Amino acid sequence: MPLDIPQRKTGPLTAIEGEFPVDEAVVALFPPNAFVLSADAHGDSAWTQTGKVMVEYPDGTLKTYFLKLALGEHGQTLLRGEFTAIDTLNTLIPGLVPVPLAWGKYSFSPPETYFFIQDFRDMDMSLPKPSKLIPRVVQMHSLTSPNGKFGFPVTTSDGIAPHINDWEDNWTHFFTRLMRKSIELNKELNTDWPEFNLAAERLLAVVIPRLLDHLREDRGPVMPRLIHGDLRGGNIGTDEETGEIIFFDAGSFYAHNELDIATWRRYGLQNLGRRYVDEYNSIFPPAEPEAEFDDRSRLYSLKFDLNHSSGHPGDTARDVAFNNMVYLCCKYASGEGLPDYEPTKDPSSGLAYI
Questions:
Q1: Burial of 33 per CB tally in 10 Å (0-12, 13-18, 19+)
Q2: EC number(s) in its UniProt entry (predicted)?
Q3: C-alpha 10 chain-centroid distance
Q4: What is the CATH number of domain 11-120?
C-alpha cells in the first residue's frame, strides 16, 4: 500500500530513474563508483512500500535489489525485525532466503522512514509440491536456540502485530505471553465482543497450560527451534533461475516448531491442505501427546488469525479464530456462556472459506 513517502531528486538522487523514493542512506551502501540507475515500485504490501532497485557496480556488473520502506515506530520494529530474521536464516541456511544487505533510517523527515534492502529474486509463486517444500521447512526447524531459550534477540512482527519474544525458558509461559498480546491488540482494534473476551480469558487461564504444560519431545521438554513466523503460501516461492525454494517476509523466533505449520490449517489460500501437514509429520513427528497434535495446531493457528484480524478489522479471520477458541474452551475448559462450535467454520474441515 502506498505510504505517500515523498520522492526527492537532489544530489546523487537526481540521476535515478523511476518514481520509487530512494534516499542517500541507501545510495551510501554501495561503492563510491557504483550508480543507482533506477528505482521502481514492485509488489504489494499491507504495511510497507516496496520497490525494485537497479545498481551498476564499478566493473559494469548490474545487480537488482528489493527495497522495503515503512513509517514510524512500527516501521522501525518491523524492518529491524525482518532484517535480523532474514540475516539469521541466511547465515544458518545460505540460499533459503534472499541475501539481506542492510536496514536503516532515511536521512530526511517527516515522515520518519525506515528501510530494509535485500537481493532481488525472480520467483515462481505457485505452491511447491510437499516433497520439495517440506525438507526445507524441516531443515529450518532443525536449528535450535543458541541459548536454549524461546525467543529472539529483537522484536519481530506478524503484520501489524509485534511478537512479544523476550527470552523465556518455559514454552507455556512464552506462548501465553505471545497470545495475550495478540488478544489485547485484537480487542483494541476490533469492535467489543463479550463472548470473545470470555473465551479469551479461558484460553489463557486454562486451555494453554492444559495443552502445553505436558508437551514432550524425545522424552524431554520441547526444544526451542527456529521458525519463519509467517510461513503461509504467499511467503514461499521458487527461484526462477536456480529452482531453489525461497522463504521471505520472515518474522522469526525460536519456538515450538508446530507453531510454524499451524498457519497451514487456516482459511483461504493459507490452507495448504492436509497433505503438507502429513508430509511434515512423516519427517518430523509431532510432539507427545501425539493425539493432541490437531488441538495444538488449532491453538497455534489463533496467533495468525488474531494478528491478521488486528490488521484487517472485520475480516473473516476473527470469526474463524473465535470459533476455534470456542472449540478449545468447550473441550478443555468450559463452554458456559459461549455459542456452539460450528464445524463448517473450521478451515481444517475443507469446508470453510476455501
A1: exposed
A2: 2.7.1.172
A3: 36
A4: 3.30.200.20
Using only the alpha carbons of the chain, give its radius of gyration: 21
Share of the chain above pLDDT 70, in %: 96
CB 191 within 8 A of CB 315: no
Q: Where are the domains of the chain?
A: 11-120, 124-349
Query: pLDDT digit string (tens) for 253-274?
Result: 999 999 999 999 886 656 787 8
Interval 25-82: pLDDT, tens: 999 999 999 999 999 999 888 889 999 999 999 999 999 999 999 999 999 999 999 9
pLDDT of residue 10: 87
Q: State how far the Cα of 115 lies from the Cα of 83, in Å rounded to an integer.
A: 10
Answer yes or no: is pLDDT of 352 > 80.
Answer: no
Cell of 326: 470456542
C-alpha 248, offset from chain centre = 9
Q: Please tell me the pTM assigned to this model.
A: 0.95
Which residues make Cβ contacts (< 8 Å) with residue 181, sequence separation at least 6? 161, 162, 164
For residues 199 and 337, the answer to whether their CB atoms sit within 8 Å is no
Please, is 277 exposed, middle or buried when counting C-beta atoms within 10 Å of its C-beta (0-12, 13-18, 19+)? buried
Which residues contact residue 49 at a Cβ distance below 8 angstroms, ignoring those fewer than 6 apart?
Answer: 1, 2, 3, 5, 20, 21, 41, 68, 69, 70
Q: What is the strand order of the sheet 236-239 is part of? A: 123-124, 236-239, 245-247
124-349 falls under which CATH superfamily?
A: Aminoglycoside phosphotransferase (APH), C-terminal lobe (3.90.1200.10)
Residue 109 reports pLDDT greater than 70: yes
Give the whole-angstrom CA distance, residue 187 versus residue 161.
12
Calpha distance 182→310 (Å, rounded)? 8
Distance CA 337, CA 340 (A): 10
